[in-house]
Amino acid sequence: MADYAKTKNSIMKKCFPFLFGIISVFNLLGQTPGDAVYMGKNSICFMGAYGQSSWDKYWENTLKRENLNIGTNTTSTVLFMSAIGLTNKLNAFVALPYTSTKNSAGNLLGQQGIQDLTIAFKYKLLEQNGFRIIGSLGGSVPIGNYVPDFLPMSIGLQSPSLTGRLITNYRHTSGVYITAQGGYTGRGNIKIDRDAYQAYETVYNTSTVAIPNLADGGIHIGYLKHGLQVYSFLERFDCIGGDNIRRNDMPFPTNDMSGTNLGGYIKYQPKSIGANFRYAYTIKGHNIGQATTWMAGLLYQFKYKKDKEENPVQ
Amino acid sequence: MKKIAYLVAFGLAFSLIILSCDKEIAADNLESYIPSKLDEKAGTWKTIQAGNVADFVVAVPKPVTDPAYQKELDSMKNFISPRITPENKKAVEYWGAGVVYRWNEIARELAARYNVPSASNAEGKYPVPDAANPLADPKFPFANPPYTARALAYMSVAQYDALVAAWHFKYKFNRKSPSKVDPGLKPLLAVTDLPSYPSDAAVIAAASYTVLIAMFPGEIPYLDSKLAECKNAAVWSMLNTPSDITAGDALGKAVAGKVMARAKTDGMASANNQTLTAGMIEAAKSRGIKEPWISLESPARPPMLPNYGAVQTWNFDKSTLNSIRPILPFLVGSVEHNKELEELKSIQKNQTREQARIANFWADGAGSYTPPGHWHRIAADDCIASKYSEVRTARTLALVGTALMDAGVACWETKYYYYTPRPQQFGLKTSVGLPNFPSYTSGHSTFSSAAVTVLSYIFPEKATKYAAFAKEASESRIYGLIHFRIDCEMGLVHGKKIGEYSVERGKADCSGM
Lengths: 314, 513
What we know:
The structure holds two protein chains of two kinds. In chain A, 6% of the residues lie in helices and 54% in strands. By secondary structure, chain A is mostly beta strands. Chain A has a single domain, classed as monomeric porin ompg (Porin), CATH 2.40.160. Helix content of chain B is 57%, strand content 0%. Chain B has helices spanning 2-20, 67-80, 86-96, 99-113, 145-173, 178-181, 200-215, 220-236, 242-264, 277-286, 318-323, 335-350, 353-363, 370-385, 390-418, 443-458, 463-479, 485-507. In chain B, α5 (145-173) crosses α9 (242-264) and α16 runs parallel beside α18 (485-507). At the A-B interface, β7, β8, β9, β13 and β14 of A face α1, α4, α13 and α14 of B.
């Protein structure tokens, strides 16, 4: 009844699905709805990856704290995804993670299961003298019937989402490039198992919960040539609205989460087989855990159909 | 150019889709109703705490022909009515759903807001909430289930007793509703033949307010605003004149004052007496308990309200409390205990989604209005679904509310009498959060069983549904992995006995029900 020590993982809970489901999921591949790297026409790339995100401190509203009844919260993800070059201008992405959570201390039961299916497309709107403007549109739907409001143990939020994104990129012939991108994610209402909940200091006598939308943006500076891609990044995401984690209470899907992550990525894929690794650290946050996140993957790329035109794989 | 057109089209399409998603969570759409019965005789019903209602003093109202009263009507018609704003109308509709109902809802919301355990400090101690400084960290009160059961019980008793008194004086003075005196008044809500002096809305508001400012002293400004809005809405709706309100306000406060006098001496002040626990543990050991409960929080948290079991009950006395206490549970190491432990381990390994749903639905944990709040909500909803009058709704909530508080007291007394360990002392985790007090018996089971025993007496046609609710609420604690089956089963048996004492009170209160 009362003395629960549940706490936060905001990033993991709310924004973890977000990070992993929408951004990080694709980030690992190096070719994502959020960057300017492209698959050539008739190419397909599969990736299998494993990663972890963990934190032992979190921001309860603005208070940075630890929680001895959580210890370190760890989310592990096995990710399957694929990028498809439908044309030289249009790429498609599909991703599905299997996620599990656990705490190193306390009594909260870890959760696990298939999370949300994400599908996204990106389209090259403009390409000139090394400059590109790309638009991307993606959506996610929950696949697993997981519990969304047992934070920070839930593996996702059960919220269907739709993301629009605009990406600008300049790549020098030396291989050095810079990308700036920004996106907006609309997130749909969810149903929880309870028929009442508290948010915004108000009791809602319903099982429907409104999830705040999200804005995010980031900058990549990197190098891409001859099958090697390396970049560092700075990313920021912000819920649009939402309430704060109450003093010593658990997080809830309505929380106003935001965070800034700093990280790096490397991929080497000289031919069809490759590998990649991504690392990120939360340098600043609000209603989220201060997470250290890594993911490593194996890639396999091939042509699913022969074509005549030249098709450089970047 | 074409590219830019694509870009714009893309942006527009995306914005349209996002904007067309409606995120609004609708407020309830409860409507005002004409009660199926006015309960004209409710002034003769027995109160719970206020004694003989004829002993309260209510000024004899001016006759409707009196110039002072005529002036009130004139002011309502020509000054107040033309100035009613859409906001005022919203308030009229909100309170029109039921004044007892709304105050019950407000109290549940306050309980939810204050239902958070304190954080440990740098010394590894848990500061105790301070009533004199209610908004400091940790806030006072910690509205845990026993606290909330008590707050809601006192408020419901005050509402009920005050309404019995109001009905007594309404039919004694028989002042008609303003629009029946002056047909020129256009009421915003349906008008019945219920006499309007003193105002029932003001009686309920003042009684509820008097209890809630004591229970939630950090919320006085908020409660002031609710009190004012509730009383104003009764005038804006043209159901009451200001003199009806003034008389109702005074009566509500007087009756609630008498109810709160009990609260001041009911033993709650020493409910958190932590010096008693060492003796309780020794006593439990002498009863055969081998492995007493320990806190599994880090740092260890003092158990919740160890002496709440000594708080005064409503519907039975101390010797009854002792005589209905559940017997010694299965002991650690016994075949039965091992079997129940195995059941939990198996659920932990293979918890189904349906088991998780049930555990979550009834969890009512931190940040919620607690199980007593949940049962008050179910009771209040069923009252308005049956178009109950205010006094009949208040009676129902008082009977359910006192049963819930009695359940809390008797369950807590049992918990600390046996001081048994939670399943987590044997390595289990939980999918709902671990309560910080002994295991046997289950509070959820006791609360639920007591509540449905009363509700099945009030609404016999729903008895099957209620029984299923109680069973599910009880088993939810097994599915959530924080109770052994014996805790839940014995809690249900105990709760039923507790509820029956409330039913006895109901049957003897001269309501004829």
